[in-house]
Amino acid sequence: MKKWIYALASIAMLIVPTTLFASSDVTNLGLTSSLIGLTCVVIFCVAYGFVMVEEFIHLPKSKPVIFAAGLIWMLVAYLASQSTVDPDAIRQVLEHNLIEYASLFLFLLVAMTYINAMTERNVFQALRSWLVSQGFSYKQLFWITGWIAFFLSPIADNLTTALLMGAVVMSVGIGNSRFVSVACVNIVVAANAGGAFSPFGDITTLMVWQSGHAEFFDFFVLFVPSVVNFIVPAAIMSLAVPSHKPDPIHETVDLKRGAFVVCGLFLFTIFTAVSFEQFLHLPPFLGMMFGLSYLALYAYYLKRTAPDTHEDITHFDLFSRVAQAEWDTLFFFFGVIFCVGGLGFIGYLEILSTTLYDGWGATNANITLGVVSAIIDNIPVMFAILTMEPEMNSFQWLLITLTAGVGGSLLSIGSAAGVALMGQARGVYTFFGHLKWSWAIALGYAASIYTHFLVNG
Fold first, then answer.
1. Does the pLDDT at position 314 exceed 70?
2. CA distance 170 to 148
3. What backbone torsions phi and psi does residue 374 show, to the nearest 5 degrees?
4. CA separation (Å) from 432 to 1, 55, 364?
5. Contact 6, 157 (CB under 8 A)
6. What SS3 string covers the chain?
7. 379 and 97 Cβ atoms separated by less than 8 Å
8. What phi-psi label fits residue 253: left (phi over 0), alpha (psi between -120 and 50 degrees) or beta?
9. Which tens digits make up the pLDDT trace of 103-144?
10. Which of 38, 122, 325, 332 has the maximum number of C-beta atoms within 10 A of its C-beta?
11. HSE on the CB side for 27, CA within 13 Å?
12. How far apart are CA 347 and CA 97, in angstroms?
């Protein structure tokens, strides 16, 4: 959901409760060496193993992680009962996890609903038709969609950007799964890289900014490293993109009535969510839900003013668009958030951060944690770092901001953008399809770090 499914710079301010780490009474159970604690880690790893092989066993990714979350918290409750921890501590942690998940859930549900509405109004089909009619080849389309994702992500966040551009790629690449697969990988990399240089382009940048470790304009020095992070793997992957053009489209795709207005309302909804967080200090999900009311009222207007000859308008129903949201992805994030929350309460996130910074030094730790964020969501990783308050200068705080932001691109499950796109392009963009290009993405990861040292060191 890495991030807003999955990071608007404001998506959800948190995925793991801040009060869990900020509490002066209980930070965690400190039972990481216990048999039960290790069992929880095994349960989490096994559940993620099922996620990784989803394309082969066809088990929706939400099911194993939700099951794992239940088991982990049962064991956490037992551990807490055997310790001196206040029984209310678990309830407080769970309540905060639930609040943060609910915020993320509502935010993503609105974004998905708008995308479904634009699909129903033929927006993406028309865009596909236009792109193909311009004579662009698959290779040109690969770069066009990648650059759009890179520059859109700092504004609309990596999750929304991935969903939007993924819909375009799947429309353009109908019948060419090879192109769709590699283009989706490119979009994930571009969206994560683009969000890394904006104070509100990703949840991790937002967290570092609000913690006071970097000023608003400090993040923009990461622009060049972010470009490198996108360009290196994109240049390599483009070699596998077919050079020929998509099959010509003979039919004309007409936009349905109100299509442009729906697109405008979506952009205004994103602006509303950002404004709620930046200027009113209200949670972004509230702005998104307010934006959903724009679509609801406009849908009512369309129905009331539709000419009798426009039969399609009567079928534009808001709740039908909500029903078509990617529920497997939304529930997947529930499982991940509560699994990671349980492991954090046991004490694993803190011990990981402490061991790395005390033993390896800031640079090695920050680079390593960026890789770790491809497996464990970057939000709890960043929370653990902020909680430990390691002694680092501004350069190192920007380094961990960069690595945590783009490290998730190494795996499809490492970021909200990747997880969301796996749900949207199920069967075409898969874990192993992404893993095939992880070596190229790793080169971009290393190159972006080198560039950061070269340009900002």
1. no
2. 15
3. -75, -20
4. 19, 8, 28
5. no
6. CCCCCCCCCCCCCCCCCHHHHHCCCCCCCCCCCCHHHHHHHHHHHHHHHHHHCHHHHCCCCHHHHHHHHHHHHHHHHHHHHCCCCCCHHHHHHHHHHHHHHHHHHHHHHHHHHHHHHHHHCCHHHHHHHHHHHCCCCHHHHHHHHHHHHHHHHHHHCHHHHHHHHHHHHHHHCCCCHHHHHHHHHHHHHHHHHHHCCCCCCCHHHHHHHHHCCCCHHHHHHHHHHHHHHHHHHHHHHHHHCCCCCCCCCCCCCCCCCCHHHHHHHHHHHHHHHHHHHHCCCCCHHHHHHHHHHHHHHHHHHHHHHCCCCCHHHHHCCHHHHHHCCCHHHHHHHHHHHHHHHHHHHHCHHHHHHHHHHHHHCHHHHHHHHHHHCCCCCHHHHHHHHHHHCCCCCHHHHHHHHHHHHHHHHHCHHHCHHHHHHHHHCCCCCCHHHHHCCHHHHHHHHHHHHHHHHHHHC
7. no
8. beta
9. 778 877 888 888 888 888 888 778 777 777 777 889 999 999
10. 332
11. 13
12. 16
Closest listed residue to residue 193, CA positions, set 381, 439, 441? 441
Structure tokens at 202: 């990703």
Residue 417 — pLDDT band, cuts 50, 70, 90?
confident
List phi, psi (to 5°) of 364: -60, -40
Determine the Cα–Cα distance for residues 107 and 288; give it in Å rounded to an integer.
6
User: What's the whole-number mean pLDDT along residues 213-227?
Assistant: 86
Domain residue ranges of the chain, discontinuous segments joined by +: 20-456
- Compute the distance between CA of residue 112 and CA of residue 419 in angstroms, rounded to an integer: 14
SS (H, E, C) 321-348: HHHCCCHHHHHHHHHHHHHHHHHHHHCH
Q: So what's the pLDDT on residue 108?
A: 78
Residue 161: CA count within 13 A, CB half-sphere: 33
Q: Kindly tell me if the per-residue pLDDT of 91 is higher than 60.
A: yes
pLDDT digits (tens, 9 = 90+) for 227-236: 999 999 999 9
Residue 406 and residue 369 in contact, taking contact as beta carbons nearer than 8 Å: no
**How large is the average pLDDT for residues 237-256?**
81
